[in-house]
Amino acid sequence: MPEKYQQFTAAHPETMANKPLAPLTTIKIGGPADLFYELDKIEELPDLIQTAKKLNIPYFILGGGSNLIFHEKGFRGLIIHIKAKTITVENETIIADAGALLSQVLQTALKNNLVGMEKLTGLPGTVGGAVRGNAGAFGIEIKDVFHKALIYNEEKGMHEEPASYFKFKYRSSTVKKRQGKDIILRVHFQLKKGDAKSAMKENAAIIASRLTKQPHGTSTGSFFKNPDPQHPAGKLLDEAGCKGLRVGSVQVSNLHANWITNLGSATQTDVITLMKTLQKRVKERFNITLEPEVQFVGDTSPINRPTR
């Protein structure tokens, strides 16, 4: 183990070495992380990052892993896995740690007769990831219920920012564009008192609808962003003859062309190779360039390296 890793572990004894990353993502791809830390208390984050910076160790913040593909060789540096998941309710506001599952927030809302985010039912991942990528479904996005968040960055340390700071757009936000410089720690969702029984019925209908449309298997979910409402990525890919295409152990679903599944031993390299083929087919057929929703981390793409 390099000396700087030994120094980091000495400062933070709960750090693990050579932690497999594939099991921590929904697509189950990725090699081991050199260093790995489970963050149960968000107050510990500044010290972890300051130590990593001091020792010039690259780091990456991991949430639910639902929109993420690690390189098969793993990650050379520190993975901080945000596990803090406390959820509280104050009047019509739900306050959730970034590591809480979005599904848990929805359950809490319904139990407290709070409505407004039922259409997000069935979306995977954590609160932090959902805010970062402005997750959405059935005409609603995180921005529609977002109030403010506690974040960390080098400029201000731990502090709160309002919705205006995030500049939410389709599957994007300021946090996503700043590529790891802002880390979401706790989120305030503003909902409304309502008829929970009716909301639960709507919930059930949405889940049923989503289950009939979504393929089974190990996946990130929707792979490409929709270029615009008139051109859904799945439709473009389908018409370009992409269903069933395969590279190695990664394959485009035969049910939904915008879903890529891991057949068992897929690698990030396989996914990128297949992605380029899909982009080429759609570009040649429709002159539209598809942009992936997923984030690639590791040898083939930029990683969050504030220490550089």
Folded structure, characterized:
A hairpin with a 3-residue loop joins strand 11 and strand 12 (157-162). A five-stranded antiparallel β-sheet has the order 6-7-13-11-12. Strands 1-2-5-3 form a four-stranded mixed β-sheet, covered by helices on one side. A four-stranded antiparallel β-sheet has the order 15-18-17-16. It is built from nine helices and 19 strands. The chain has 308 residues and is an alpha+beta fold.
Quick recap:
This protein is of the alpha+beta class and 308 residues long.
Question: How confident is the prediction overall: mean pLDDT?
Answer: 91
Spatial separation of the terminal alpha carbons = 21 Å
Quantity of strands, as a count: 19
Poorly predicted residue ranges: 300-308
Q: What is the count of helical runs?
A: 9
